[in-house]
DNA sequence: CCCTGATTCGC
DNA sequence: GCGAATCAGG
């Protein structure tokens, strides 16, 4: 999306009305709040009033520049792809753990709406357009309390009594 | 954690 | 000119 004359007008208007950069970005669509802020500065209309922020920062020095490489591989992602890959046997375990799980109740998050504080339990086939995440409030970890139970099944002796399992589930559930 | 604007600089 | 990454702060 480019800064057409209309879009700039909308930007000016909303900015003058006191909307935040992210609000303006959302309304315009196709731009991030960074883009909006950048444009605001280029238009020379930064700092409307003083939102109670004296902010005198010593001039920022040259950015250390850990930018992503031209090949598109982020430095952090570059190594240890092996650790991310799921082995076949683990897949089977995950799939079986998944069986009782996909709670279809209420809200599921998409990759776009999933927040850090939301349960990241996958629901459905990742290849499916309808693939989603559980999305309920996560409970200390990446999952909601319900999914945490099945996600973090410990290794245990097969011939233990069910009582032990229930005690364990109660303990990790808080 | 969520958010805000400000700045730098590779593109 | 553009905007992601980063910073500094609420």
TrEMBL record:
Positions with biased composition (Basic and acidic residues): 161-174
Region (Disordered): 46-88, 152-174
Pfam families: GcrA
InterPro entries attached to this UniProt entry: GcrA
Gene3D superfamilies attached to this UniProt entry: Homeodomain-like
Domain of life assignment: Bacteria
Descriptive protein name: GcrA cell cycle regulator
Biased composition (Basic residues): 54-67
């Amino acid at each position: 999306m480019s800064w057409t004359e209309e879009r700039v007008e909308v930007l000016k208007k909303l900015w003058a009305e006191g909307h935040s950069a992210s609000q303006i970005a959302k309304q315009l669509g196709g731009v991030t709040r960074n883009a909006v802020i950048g444009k605001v500065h280029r238009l020379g209309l930064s700092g409307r009033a003083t939102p109670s922020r004296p902010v005198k920062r010593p001039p920022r020095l040259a950015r250390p520049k850990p930018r992503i490489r031209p090949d598109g591989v982020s430095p952090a992602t570059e190594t240890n792809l092996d650790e991310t890959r799921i082995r076949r046997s683990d897949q089977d375990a995950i799939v079986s753990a998944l069986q009782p799980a996909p709670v279809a109740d209420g809200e599921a998050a998409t990759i776009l709406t999933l927040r850090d504080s939301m349960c990241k339990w996958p629901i459905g086939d990742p290849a499916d357009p309808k693939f989603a995440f559980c999305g309920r409030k996560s409970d200390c970890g990446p999952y909601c309390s319900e999914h945490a139970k099945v996600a973090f099944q410990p290794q245990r002796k097969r011939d233990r009594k069910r009582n032990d399992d229930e005690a364990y589930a109660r303990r990790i559930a808080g």
